[in-house]
Amino acid sequence: MSASPAKPTYGDLTTQGASTNIAWHHTSVDRAARAGQRGHRSAILWFTGLSGSGKSTLANAVNAALFEKGLACYVLDGDNIRHGLCKDLGFSDADREENIRRIGEVSKLFLDAGVVVLTAFVSPFKADRDRARALVDGGDFIEIHCAADLAVCEERDTKGLYAKARAGEIKEFTGISSPYEAPEAPELRVDTGNQTLEQSVEQVLVYLSAQGIIAQAN
Fold this sequence. Notes:
The chain has eight helices and nine strands. With 218 residues, the protein is an alpha/beta fold.
């Protein structure tokens, strides 16, 4: 007979933010067990870049490629998240910070669940991205800078947002009236302004293979 799962254990009661008398619940199935069952590591692929830089397009294309390889994977998209989890937030600096804080915590849960989670958010501030990185162990957070120039992003302007921002119809728009702090040393910098989507996907997959997150191609 197979052994029964270990009984959950609880840590000491603590206070976290506004929550009191809470304890961390150690589950009976951990991340290592999930990795063993699925045959691959989990990771956070954090795509960051200006609006129109191709974050969502690339994240979804990489997600499709990972799915075809049989990996457990999921995309957290900036617009989709603001339809639910973060619909109470606007685009002030404080709200942007809270938006990324929530995404960092959700991404950490996906990581523990054994999933390769791909996040596609402008996440314009370095401090916010660093806080998300600090939530997990080294090697679990892979920052991918979609490095398309502002001119390229404006030319694409698939949502018409830059035109509205230039006209003053959208306040605090990243790249126009609000700053974007580009990553100084991301794990991966992808030239989404000049490369084809296929080239960008391959660049990401090669990196993931080198890191042992996906199996190397034969």
